[in-house]
Design goal:
The chain is 47% helix and 19% strand. The chain contains eight helices and eight strands; from the N terminus they run ααααβααβαββββββα.
Length: 225
Amino acid sequence: MNGALSRLGHRLVSVLLALTSLVLVVHSIAGLDFDRLQQTLTTRFGSNQIALFNDWRLMLNDGQRLSETERLVRVNDFFNRRMLFDDDIRTWRQTDYWATPIEFIGQGAGDCEDFSIAKYYSLIALGIPISKLRLVYVKALQNGPGGPIQQAHMVLAYYAKPSADPLVLDNLVVDIRPASQRSDLSPVFSFNSAGLWMGTGNQSSKSNLSRWQDLLARARAEGFD
């Protein structure tokens, strides 16, 4: 009997240690301060989106074990399936607002910029180098009442190598496809935290996008280091 209790005690200790390790991993992904992020979320938006926030955090934890390509799919699917598309006027009462991932989660909805930015930050948290990711402003060819029209749109591009055909993470076409298979998209310029490019070229310049600089500062204040 004592031996059985001892073995049970050892198993319980092992389980507790495993759970503790999981909590530590979830708390420290890529230096993210999840307590601070959650506090920002509840202070601004209440507790309605805590479940979504926790699912996002667990998705990041589970993604640590995946390949880079699998991480792209996991992040792309999470936001495309869980978030609603809505324009800035209805969501923010502004004509053009770039939301941080916490603001996006807090509202539960956003436009193409918000989808792309949330995916960008999530993939960085999963260890994807910034150099492999670019937010791309494009003209998207869509069907309108009077025929095809071009609309301003934003997607996230992933470059396995600098000269590679990038993979496109989009909220309009939900599966990830190479840019060469997205003839409906015409790149205008692309950028990340390191620079700004015309089209999808490799000549970088210092980004002076005021909305992007403002978003980076707000995200840092929320807990995205």
